[in-house]
Amino acid sequence: MATASDRIKELVDTLNRASRAYYQEDREIMDNLQYDRLYRELEGLERETGITLANSPTVSVGYEVLEELPKEAHGSPMLSLDKTKDIEDLRSFIGDHKTLLSWKLDGLTIVLTYEDGRLAKAVTRGNGLVGEVITNNARVFADLPLKIPYTEKLVLRGEAVITYRDFEKINQKIEDVDARYKNPRNLCSGSVRQLNNEMTAQRNVHFYGFALVSAPGMDFQDSHEKEMEFLAGQGFQVVEYRIVTGDTLDTAMEYFSSKITENEIPSDGLVAVYDSISYGASLGHTSKFPRNSFAFKWADEIRETTLEEIEWSPSRTGLINPIAIFSPVELEGTTVSRASVHNISILEELELGIGDRIQVYKANMIIPQIADNLTRSKRLDIPQICPACRGETQIDQDKDVKVLRCPNPLCPAKKIKSFTLFASRDAMNIEGLSEATLEKFIGKGFLQDLSDLFGLSRYKEEIIDMEGFGERSYENLMENLEKARTTTLPRVLYSLGIPGIGLANAKLICRHFDQDMGQIMQATEEEISSIDGIGPVLAKNLATYLAREENKKLWEHLSRQLHIEAVEGPADSTLEGKTFVITGTLEHFTNRKELKELIESKGGKVTGSVTGKTHYLINNNTSSNSSKNKKARELGIPILSEDDFIDTYAPEAAR
């Protein structure tokens, strides 16, 4: 029977799909009356249950950029689980005990704390003792409750995950093949540990609770199952589980093993937890593992095949990576014929040779790997010539691992990454220049340095005759290049690919030096590091880059090709030199981004954390004991409500 929290999730999904269709796809899937009726039903259910999801259309979660992720020790160590691939070991562990058997999700473990019914803190597992505080990012998870009916202090653990479908969509948008994520877990980890939670929101991160740590005043009748039911009743998605004993284990295993192939949520096995809380606690734990739970890892499906070739693939960093090409085999429902060997050390350990009989499998049922080499002929030569530039290769030792590298600084494989960044949306925004197209142009010798992009018209006939091109494609490219000539200095500075210099840092630097590249070129490392928000590492990177003769020549070439528009400073400099931090819910402004833009339009700056450089904290709940309020009081920083801010600095924003 569907519960009120189930209906809330259904309404949120329906209303968000309707909004997306109307505002982003120019189509209607329901009329206004129907939308309003469902919206009012959702508002009523949220009031009735006390549950509000982060992606509910009734709330607007502001975005916030942090300077760093603070560290925090866990209240109790988060231990790993002992594990097996043998179902009989799992059966022996379960015995006659009522046990919860659930997915072992493959994402990032998070500890959540709720106070007064609201999300107060989110911390990653980290090393099990100390994690990173990612509260801002958790607030924009796709389906995490921001508000729950239980008002005592609630602590739970769960897994942040990104579905396979979203993983594929996100990877497809990354044109640089080397920059793509290897698996959903890596993507999830990078998304959750962002300093900018707007990026986290775009990644569609989901959260599944798998353990309740504490909920004072609640009686769960000595049952973990009751705890899971309680969490579901608070609006959390909980990991799917089955109740088993040793006698009923086989039926549950059949269910999970049949569903794993179609499951959208990444999982690398199962977890068994004794239902009895007191019995599990009485068992204690070893130095590494709790004794009340046990993990089961899927036995890998292994196939035997023949190694046909080793393909050596140059990367953007100069590494040349070996990839095994073998006779196609069926693994976990798909046909595979390639597997990364990663480096020379692994290749030598496997004693690979062309024609060898090898065993292959999919790690976590996803990534093809070589399990073993049955022949071990060692019939394999390490290439002495780079396949990209035909220059000599070298074998390096990188942290006890042998790798093959191309030392040629002009190797075209290395160029591709810099050209791809230069053409990207936040840089020069040259549409129609994919990595594949740039690779073709570089391979044909059209591009030596970045400025050569604006001279591609010299190769008109060759480009028109290229596969995938034609007259119209060439004309579109020329139009886009002409459009890109008119730009701003921060975009150009970012596009150069200087380590650590993102668009936001480029704006700070250019603003400090009055949008004058001449001043930037002559600036010392000390002058650059004096800029508020630019540390010594970034200052050194910029100064070192600009000191190189080849980079000075590149700027000379580029400056002749570009029309750099002046970036006007704020017309109103009321807040010049003042730094603000915004927290809590807003009433006068739609979201934090709107208030941030107003502050910046008046010359001010908005950061994510309260430090000694902060001038004001904006929080409508000025008397709360939130961490930011406490920090502001400790440092003697004034805490302003929205009304205080508007009355003093922005009377035009009064509504």
Walkthrough of the structure:
By secondary structure, the protein is α+β, with helices and mostly antiparallel strands. It folds into 5 domains: 46 residues; 226 residues, 2-Layer Sandwich (D-amino Acid Aminotransferase, Chain A, domain 1); 103 residues, Beta Barrel (OB fold (Dihydrolipoamide Acetyltransferase, E2P)); 160 residues, Orthogonal Bundle (DNA polymerase, domain 1), CATH 1.10.150; 75 residues, Rossmann fold (3-Layer(aba) Sandwich), CATH 3.40.50.10190. Helix content is 35%, strand content 22%. The strands form 8 sheets. The protein has a 5-stranded mixed beta sheet. α12 crosses α13 and α16 crosses α17. The chain is globular. The model has no long low-confidence stretch (mean pLDDT 85).
Which secondary structure elements does this structure contain, and how are they paired or packed?
Layout: H1 4-24, H2 32-49, E1 52-53, E2 71-73, E3 83-84, H3 87-94, E4 99-105, E5 108-115, E6 118-124, E7 130-132, H4 135-138, E8 145-147, E9 154-161, H5 164-172, H6 184-192, H7 197-202, E10 206-214, H8 224-233, E11 241-244, H9 249-259, E12 267-274, H10 277-283, E13 293-296, E14 303-314, E15 320-331, E16 334-340, H11 344-349, E17 357-363, E18 367-373, E19 394-398, E20 401-405, H12 412-423, H13 435-443, H14 460-465, H15 471-485, E21 486-488, H16 489-495, H17 503-512, H18 517-522, H19 525-529, H20 536-547, H21 549-561, E22 563-565, E23 579-582, H22 592-601, E24 605-607, E25 616-618, H23 627-635, E26 639-640, H24 642-649
